[in-house]
């Protein structure tokens, strides 16, 4: 006797809504990175002093590093959430 297997439905990650969800998570991460950078600069005078003496390139590297790190982290977290939602349904 064979077990009745239900056909696998495609994951929602490989669809337009899946890509939109991932991009949304990346944008939320980028916004959090900017907010964290602003809070760090305002709360820690040493960071603000380093950025003042480093010039515009130091500010650019500081902002891009935080934005990229937070965006990648939020995107990977969103990926896990989407995969988990697919397993539940």
Please write out the topology:
Elements: H1 16-43, H2 45-88
Helix pairs in contact: 1-2
Summed up, the domain count is 1
Fraction of helical residues: over 70%
**Helix/strand structural class:** mainly alpha
Q: Which parts are unreliable, with pLDDT below 50 for 5 consecutive residues or more?
A: none
- What order do the helices and strands follow? HH
Through-space gap between termini:
27 Å
> How many individual helices?
2
Indicate the mean pLDDT: 88
> What form results from the Cα inertia axes?
elongated
Beta-strand content bin = under 5%
Radius of gyration: 20 Å
Tell me about the largest β-sheet. none
Number of extended strands? 0
Keywords: Membrane, Transmembrane, Transmembrane helix
Transmembrane segments: 58-83
Structural features, described:
With 89 residues, the protein is mostly helical. It has one domain (26-88). It contains two helices and no strands. It has helices at 16-43, 45-88. The longest helix has 44 residues, at 45-88. The model has no long low-confidence stretch (mean pLDDT 88).
Summarize the structure.
Keywords: Membrane, Transmembrane, Transmembrane helix. The chain has 89 residues and is an all-alpha fold.
Pick out its properties.
89 residues; single chain; membrane
